[in-house]
Amino acid sequence: MKFFIDTANLDEIRQANDMGILDGVTTNPSLMAKEGIGGKNAIMQHYAAIASLVDGDVSAEVIATDYEGMIREAHELAEIAPNIVIKIPMITDGLKAIRQLTSEGIKTNCTLIFSPGQALLAAKAGATYVSPFIGRLDDISTDGIQLIADIRLIFDNYGFPTQILAASIRHPMHIIESARIGADVVTTPLKPLLALVRHPLTDKGLEKFLADYRKHNP
Ligand code: E4P
Fold this sequence. Notes:
- By secondary structure, the protein is of the alpha/beta class.
- It has helices at about 10-20, 30-35, 40-55, 65-80, 90-105, 115-125, 135-140, 145-160, 170-180, 190-195, 200-215; strands spanning about 1-5, 25, 55-60, 85-90, 110-115, 130, 165, 185-190.
- The chain is built from 11 helices and 8 strands.
- Erythose-4-phosphate binds next to helix 7.
């Protein structure tokens, strides 16, 4: 399973990368705004900075919602670096844009997936990734993890190569459950990722090992 970090914060990306387990980055317009990045040049420069920090795929989202606009933006974003993946919303024109970009050899990530049918359509259009949003479904009393399971089953039924990128992760169990089901990628904020590292018995065990060592190595 691949680990992506879901942030536009360069320090957080560096921190996750330093752990040695990072495979890529996802961003969205809200995450860019959170970092105070605005204006086309600043946005493009920020994507370039992110893309230079990691070897793996970096999702950069289009703002246009019409086919021509999405394709225009996608071409500009794809020029930034070879590891830029174009994030396209799950709308009718988005599907058409995914089909076109795929035919040009440009990687895509179909975002804002909330149903198995949406994921099926994105896979059929040739998306490299689909991003089902687990946390936002849980927020409205719908089982987000079940969506990952449904998409896994459907993709496996037909051998779709589209990768399931579990998104909108809120806590470490979202990561574990996604891994159990067989999501290809999980994109997580830094906090749930760091929470995976910790276990009280690890801390306690390490404390005892070091205390015992010190007894005979004063
Ligand atoms: C996915 O690529 C999105 O950036 C992200 O996971 C959305 O998560 P949120 O629901 O926490 O905003």
